[in-house]
Amino acid sequence: MSTLCAGCGHDSITGAIIETVFDLNIPPHRMIKLSGIGCSSKTPAYFASQSHGFNAVHGRMPSVATGAQSGPKAKCIT
Predict the structure, then answer these.
(1) CA torsion angle 70 55 28 62 (round to 10)
(2) Staple 33 to which of 1, 21, 53, 74, CB 3.0 to 4.6 Å?
């Protein structure tokens, strides 16, 4: 059951990400889920429990994502 507000698009986005990760056969341990703070900060906890997740403060996610993506086998989802 969602803990987000009724009509929020986060559940649809999360569903699309889950479907895409499954279709692309990305192993959870190769995935890095990144988000900012606020409602989107819940997203890393919603799927692929064996993957890595991180919440950054406002305005810092692009820098964090750039660093995380530099790993040769990493697949970042921001």
Answers:
(1) -30
(2) 53
Side-chain-facing half-sphere of 47: CA atoms under 13 Å: 22
pTM above 0.85, yes or no: no
Q: What is the pLDDT of residues 7-26, one digit of tens each?
A: 888 878 888 888 888 898 98
Question: Within its chain, how far is the Cα of 64 from the centroid?
Answer: 13
Do you know the residue count of the chain? Answer: 78
Q: Distance between the two ends of the chain, CA-based, in angstroms? A: 23
| Predicted pLDDT at 78 | 55
CB 32 within 8 Å of CB 75: yes
Strands (E) across 1-78 are located at 31-35, 52-55, 75-77
